[in-house]
Amino acid sequence: MPDLHKDAPASPTGPGRAETGPPPEAIRAVPVRHYGRWAGAVVVLVLLGLLVWAFVNADIHWDVVGDQLTYHTIVEGAGKTLWISVLSMLLGVVLGLVLAVMRLSRNPVLTSVSWAYIWFFRGTPVLVQLFLWYYLSFVFDTVNLGFYKDEMNDVMTPFLAALLGLGLNEAAYMAEIARAGILSVDPGQTEAAHALGMSGAKTMRRIVLPQAMRVIIPPTGNEFVNMLKTSSLAYAIQFEELFRAGETISSRNLAVMEMLMVVSVWYLALTTLFSIAQFYLERRFARGSHRQLPPTPLQRLRSHLGSFRTPSRVGKVTI
Amino acid sequence: MSAEPMVRAERVHKSFGAVEVLRGIDLEVRSGEVACVIGPSGSGKSTFLRCINHLEKISAGRLYVDGELVGYRQRGNRLYEMREREVAAQRRDIGMVFQRFNLFPHMTAAENVMEAPVQVKGLRKAAARERAAELLARVGLQGRMDAYPAQLSGGQQQRVAIARALAMDPKLMLFDEPTSALDPELVGEVLDVMRRLAEEGMTMIVVTHEMGFAREVGDSLVFMDEGVVVESGRPRDVLTDPRHDRTRTFLSKVL
């Protein structure tokens, strides 16, 4: 195959005219003093100190907090919170994507159904929706799917009611997030894919969605953090998640505030863990959008350690 | 040479709502010909180009590529719209290069070139990568296989885009102002690649403002204004001795 590209002759690049003589003296000026900053820091620190002082002297049994933190009921509750959040989120993301594509389709029936779904599930409180699922047996006493038939009371466990309540509600929000993501992709991308002979479905899957992900993931992470906390509402329909576990124990040991603190520590741990995971996920989908990806905290740490000895490299930048 | 031209447009009309952008285009491009289309902005030249691979549907007239009606099937006197799959199949043989490159930013240069052969033709990845290496070398980018578009200059991106279109072995290449988004010093490298392609006998339709390229490489020059072909002919003739006032006025502004 012949070479289509002829190398242009290298342009003559001579060294620029260099400065002669000694370099000018470096500037050493007296910096501006920021007294306001000092005052602000002092005020905030004093207030913070008072707050800590108040808690230290409050009637809190910190030993109970420590003991209960790893109590098996609490750990199991945290596990269930994580489990129901992940499952509901999965349901929400998948159904949300479907709803977003329906909403953007040219079929008026699909568009309106998607619109109505979002209208209903975004317009009513999650708590109400949870109870609607939980009490479904009041209006339908049997489930009959043709191939499967059973008593509604046996089918609609707290777990299933929580999953449906949280997941279907989430789908409405995810649909809007996914729609915004899909619309954010340059129409030129679709045109280029079509011009290459790719079908609509393939263009969506291979070209549009991967690029939409960059816009979709940050708010989705936010939704998941919300989901971890919103799942506590499922305590009202007898689902044994983290908050309910704390409530059950405090009704026995009467350490109400202590148990709430235990529960809070667990929620904070879960949301923190997830935020770290989100960082790496976003980094992965940022491929191609930056000339160079930002280093991960680990890489940054390694480069700092390395800089004490020899110059180390992160990506293509020598640090 | 076959008697059937590669592209044949017969009284092609195209309206966007009430605005008629193309008002009866008649044009033939023979196989192996390089046709350059010039004209003021808004004259419909880009729209016409996009009609050729059915990115836009024409509203009236007939448009044939290699003897086949674009986007429709004719049975008797009736026209049937093609299914998405059939339209996609037609587009496979027509390469297109865009003003704004439209490379896939989440894929490397090699992946951009491999995408269609793998996804559309079902070529094996290893084979597609080998071919991508060949094509990228052909456009002078042998060392940049694994660079993402954001890491390439405009001229390099456009050359990847040309390689991407060539990967489908098209019988016709459409260029929609391929150098208009480039810094002046990068225009030459893209035009060089296009010139080589023309020398190899590729059939090309090039919407461009590069009069030098049109004069040296083009076999024919088409001047469009307000949705019609005002005049066409050998580039040298049109550029040096235009027959119409409108052509003369346009050329006096750009030359």
Automatic annotation (TrEMBL), chain A:
Any single GO CC term annotated in Swiss-Prot or TrEMBL for this entry: ATP-binding cassette (ABC) transporter complex
Membrane topology label: Multi-pass membrane protein
Any matching Pfam family: BPD_transp_1
Domain ABC transmembrane type-1, residue spans: 78-278
Region (Disordered): 1-24
GO molecular function per UniProt: transmembrane transporter activity
InterPro entries registered for this protein in UniProt: AA_ABC_transptr_permease_3TM, ArtM/GltK/GlnP/TcyL/YhdX-like, MetI-like, MetI-like_sf
Parts of the chain that traverse the membrane: 38-56, 82-102, 114-136, 156-175, 259-281
Signal peptide: none
Alphabetic keyword roster: Amino-acid transport, Cell membrane, Membrane, Transmembrane, Transmembrane helix, Transport
Keyword Cell membrane on entry: yes
Similarity comment: family membership: Belongs to the binding-protein-dependent transport system permease family.
Listed name of the protein: Amino acid ABC transporter permease
Species this protein is from: Streptomyces hoynatensis
Taxonomic lineage from the root: Bacteria, Bacillati, Actinomycetota, Actinomycetes, Kitasatosporales
From TrEMBL, chain B:
Keyword Nucleotide-binding attributed: yes
PROSITE patterns in the cross-refs: ABC_TRANSPORTER_1, ABC_TRANSPORTER_2
Catalyzed reactions: a polar amino acid(out) + ATP + H2O = a polar amino acid(in) + ADP + phosphate + H(+)
Keyword GTP-binding: no
GO molecular function annotation: ATP binding; ATP hydrolysis activity; ATPase-coupled polar amino acid-transporter activity
Enzyme nomenclature, EC number: 7.4.2.1
CDD domains: ABC_HisP_GlnQ
Classification of source organism: Bacteria, Bacillati, Actinomycetota, Actinomycetes, Kitasatosporales
Protein name, entry field: ABC-type polar-amino-acid transporter
Location of the ABC transporter domain: 7-251
Source organism (scientific name): Streptomyces hoynatensis
PANTHER family reported in the protein's UniProt record: AMINO ACID IMPORT ATP-BINDING PROTEIN, PHOSPHONATES IMPORT ATP-BINDING PROTEIN PHNC
